[in-house]
């Protein structure tokens, strides 16, 4: 299918010729048709696709309920409110995450209390999390970083509310066979275009508790009653709705999710082979103990002593897009200035964050492209 482009605009495909991109969504005729149907129906928001998308998503995970929201960040905000996080509370969380997981805590005037990560899985270390608990702690917010299941079963032993940031972990499964996001705690997924499933922008909160779903459904829609039958607002709400256009896109993506996840796993395996034997390079941890990763990104840690920023530049010059991923949240200017953080507090996280590099990773990446990335990386590292 050809898509007409306005004259004078740059064709991104042509501009990227030769460059291997970091991420790329899988969008085909099914998505186009699904969106077109909604556009033609005249009901662009709060239509039939919303409940369908929620139902199908929950069913896929084995979760009791799901609420679609406008972004993963919006979902984290509403999930934290739903477990009662508010002024002055502390929430223990991982410093190795996308900044949204900590920001959502600050939205409710609560304090993100970081605890260091496990050096292998890169997820919140349960022992460090336990040590960070104080009488003010009301919740734990583990992040399933890079799609690898966080040790939620261990955190459950702390007896505190849990909100899971599963924005990177669609398709991941815990050792006990329960899908990430289906343990009953409010769990948040994100649908930005680089995620396993995209709606352009969007998110989903799964929960085992019907009252949590009711509260989130109301708060995403200005605090209105679920039946919309009245316009009184008995609680503070937001506009965190997800349009029917986006929900239709999500439904089409769910249809191809198994294939997309399998393709990501295939690309990860190709990388593992192509990158083996580079001295000092750390690859993503393999699945262990029955936990299964839902592949989201392929992040390597460069050998100690390597200049990461120079490596990024050298790879860009060789036509390979990469990104330092993820930076440590506590060392970001806002968190340093507002919460007094400084280097040295979370040594495992800081070491990983300083050396991490995300390589091009998406379902359509070919074996030839993976080999080229590996060759260019070896060249850039001088190995
Ligand atoms: C993507 C992501 C989010 C949410 O992002 P949105 O852009 O708001 O959908 C939250 N946490 C993590 C760890 C993420 O990777």
Q: What tags apply to this protein structure?
A:
binds pyridoxal-5'-phosphate; 383 residues; Aspartate Aminotransferase, domain 1; four-stranded parallel beta sheet
Structure report:
By secondary structure, this protein is an alpha/beta fold. The strands form three sheets. It has a four-stranded mixed beta sheet. The N and C termini lie far apart (43 Å). Helix 2 (29-41) runs antiparallel to helix 9, helix 3 (48-61) runs parallel beside helix 9 (244-255) and helix 4 (72-82) crosses helix 8 (210-219). The chain is globular, with a radius of gyration of 21 Å. It has two domains: 12-18 and 257-322 and 360-381, Alpha-Beta Complex (Aspartate Aminotransferase, domain 1); 29-255, Type I PLP-dependent aspartate aminotransferase-like (Major domain) (Aspartate Aminotransferase, domain 2, 3-Layer(aba) Sandwich). It has helices at residues 12-15, 29-41, 48-61, 72-82, 100-107, 126-132, 152-156, 210-219, 244-255, 257-274, 308-317, 333-339, 347-355, 367-381, and strands at residues 65-69, 90-93, 111-114, 137-141, 161-162, 164-165, 187-190, 203-207, 298-301, 323-324, 356-359. The relative contact order is 0.16. The protein is built from 14 helices and eleven strands. The model is unreliable at 1-16 (pLDDT under 50). The structure holds pyridoxal-5'-phosphate (PLP). Pyridoxal-5'-phosphate binds next to helix 4 and helix 5.
First-last Cα distance: 43 Å
Q: How many domains in all?
A: 2
Mean pLDDT: 94
CATH superfamily of the largest domain: Type I PLP-dependent aspartate aminotransferase-like (Major domain)
Order of helices and strands: HHHEHEHEHEHEEEEHHHEHEHHEH
- Give the class-level CATH name of the largest domain: Alpha Beta
Low-confidence stretches: 1-16
* Corresponding CATH architecture of the largest domain: 3-Layer(aba) Sandwich
The gyration radius over C-alpha positions equals 21 Å
Share in β-strands: 5-15%
What are the distinct ligands in this entry? pyridoxal-5'-phosphate
What shape does the CA trace take? globular
- The class by helix and strand makeup works out as alpha/beta
How many strand units?
Answer: 11
Biggest pleated sheet: 4 strands, mixed
CATH fold call of the largest domain: Aspartate Aminotransferase, domain 2
